[in-house]
Amino acid sequence: MKPKKIAAAKARKTTKAVSSKSKAAKKITAKKPAARKVAAKQVKAQAPTAKNIAYDPQIIEKKWQAKWEADKLYRAVIDERKPKHYALTMLPYPSGDLHIGHWYAMTPSDARARFKRMQGYNVLFPMGFDAFGLPAENAAIRDGIHPMKRTYQNIERMRKQLKSMGAMFDWSREVVSSDPEFYRWTQWFFIQLYKAGLAYRKMAAVDWCPKDNTTLAREQVIGENRVCERCGTPVIKKDLEQWFFKTTKYADELLRFDELDWPQTVKTLQTNWIGRSEGASVHFKTEAGEDIEIFTTRPDTLWGATFMVFAPEHPLVDKVTTPEQKAAVEAYKAQAARQSDIEREAADKEKTGVFTGGYAINPVNDERIPIWIADYVLLSYGTGAIMAVPAHDERDFAFARKYDLPIVPVIQPEGVTLDGATMERAHEHEGVMINSGPFNGTRATDEKGMANPAIKAVVEWLEQKGIGRRAVNYRYRDWLISRQRYWGAPIPMVYCEKHGWNPVPDDQLPVLLPEDVEWKPTGESPLKLHPTWKNTACPECGEPAVRETDTMDTFMCSSWYHLRYLSPHYNKGPFDEKEYNYWMPVDTYTGGIEHATMHLLYTRFFHKALRDMGITEGNEPMIQLRNQGMVLAEDNSKMSKSRGNVVAPDRLVEKYGADTVRAYLMFFARWEMGAPWDSQGIEGSARWIRRTWILFTDPSTTLRSAQDEPIAATDETKKNLRRKVHQTLRKVTRDFENFEFNTIISSLMELMNEMYKAREAGAVGTPEWNEATEIYLKMLAPVAPHIAEELWTHQMGKPYSIHQQTWPKYDEEAAKEDTIEIPVQVNGKVRDRIVVAADASEKAIEATALASPTVQKFLEGRPPKKVIVAQKRLVSVVV
RNA sequence: GCCGAAGUGGCGGAACAGGCAGACGCGCACGACUCAAAAUCGUGUUCCUUCGGGAUUGAGGGUUCGAUUCCCUCCUUCGGCACCA
Hints:
Number of helices: 31
Radius of gyration: 36 Å
Largest sheet: 7 strands, mixed
Shape: globular
CATH superfamily of one domain: Valyl/Leucyl/Isoleucyl-tRNA synthetase, editing domain
Mean pLDDT: 88
CATH architecture of one domain: Alpha-Beta Complex
């Protein structure tokens, strides 16, 4: 049993009695059971008094939301006298209803933005809607409701729900990505990227339903046999000319994170996603007369390349295939094409392949090597063809053993002699080069790329000889922008027979989506089917030309929306430079980890590309990033409509009020981790908010301070209260900085419990009490903005608004303890606790510890071998 | 398979920088109030115990006077990538 606990318990015991204002009530602080009973009865008889108002969040929350809005309290306006803070949280897709996950992402972000504001920053905290996208279009196909209508209805509904959070969103800066005044600039950016040479067209495969005659998104392809979601027809791959952005041009820069305060996990995810590997590009001749470049990370093993493997779809396959092998090759190609991606990518799948009959020449030793095709070589990576070095690559080894191809070791590990005929696995590690002509004896390490002396030597030699060069390859692909959809920003390009593709002139932007469109049940793009929309004039010659009927990936909108918030209605450019110069970059960006690779990489790419065009400044758009976790359903599963286990924030707000919901979301889990929802758990937060209300409104507080009664509190009580206040302030300040919301709430709960205790001890009306109430409410303000405002402005009569107050500074001196309790260990076990003055010397602490009878008992008369006094935290005695 | 994150009471979690494990809250038990219930308030709540104490932060080892924290091996869960040449 800890002394702390006893004290707290005592405080709680007397709370009830104190709700009386009578003189008798004062007596009962001496806590005789009989007296308490009397007091409680009196309370009942008096209640409700005018002063003893019940907590009604429905009334106060609506009241303050209306007033804040009317007063434009959260308008963010450039103010050069103040440091700026651009806090951004990812904008929602208007799906219809706000989800508890939105609340979980947004309300702690809001609390932190509010904290920053109270710290003196000029804070911009905007909100908007990522309004284009597939769900609205699907609904249109299903129900015949126009996506525009549905989207804007949803936005209206969700805007209202968002406002019920009591967040400090500056709604005057709201953006909706499907508004023409927004997508005009999305289109403008496309054109800028096009003009900068970063947009190009190429053929790319899409998943296609041959029956519905339409492209399918990944989630519209169902099951292992990959059928169309609508009609069950097996999906095929279809090649279409599509628009791409050259994101890979920035791959190397995107791998640099030195200006970013981002979670390590996100940086790792992006690094893996980009998948940079260093090596060499090597030129091979084939006997069919066509040359081929291959990429390898191990040019040091070139002398061990005993065959080549092409991807079955590789365009050169037909050229190198001999007539005798043609049938086998065709058969293999056909079965590879039939396989789903999933089957093909199964890791444990046995290697298969077919000899083409063709040969290539290994350029380093002029050996004639056979060309095979196999589905373990992917057309999408590297050049779609590899040199196979079975002695030093597991996959090539398995393939060579299966088809009885030669294995020649060229890297000899220390103390072992590798023999191609008998070795049981590939040797993928360090050793000394052998069988490698001029390089025999060169040391190959486990280092990758040019850091490996063997690779470096060979690459330099290849370059000299003109048969290869240093090369870097990426897993990362260029960004495919085209979507064969209606509900997106039209790609502002026009095709003319004579002049090819040209951008729509600026003065004709935006290219508006036609509203008079119809949906076929198949999902074919209405833009393609529209009778007149695509007809236009060539910007070059004025002759009849056609518009691009594809629209843009919605990631395009989210790549720059943070810039539109700067000046949502500005019409001379995508943003007002003045606003940009003041607010950018985004200081704090919050959102889900699921956007780690796509959205966040696209946004960084976009910013860098714009920087190089002189449109933006700085290298990064968002300096600090934090990810929240996920709120799971009570049974630990994911929440989903189909499972019927979603938690509706609207109903929680009705039942508990927004302040309680906010507090619980901050309290119930580590923010970055998330946790299952607990419908009982929220009662605890509701209780805390209610007890806060009672602490400030109960007659035992309000009347006591009004009556100027003599102060009963001892100096010690007052000092303890002040200490707790400043300790809490120190902790809450630090926790806000670090996004540790759960411990902010628990610290505030502790302080509140302490304040109840202090009230019992007669502290109401003292300067310490008044300071405690002020600081408590200021710390509460970012968490529970409504109740804090009500208690501050209305109940205590302090100047409106609490949200314009400055964050208090903690007093280090006041937070200091007078005495400290130090545990004493004997042989590593805690045996006693001693109380010493906070400024006691180590010597004094040691003496006190050794003098303790308990410690003496455990010493059993033995002299201590060693006594360690650890910085006023612990004494460790070793015998 | 590779990369990353995380494993602490019945539950969510706390523990600044190697120094009292379990703050704060939920739940539960008992009690007060109540005709009763809800609400509220109070007390207790890691496990074992011969009441001396012992064990305990996924498991096992190591470093240290001292490890939830650092190192090694392993297990489990989650996330990412997945034949990447």
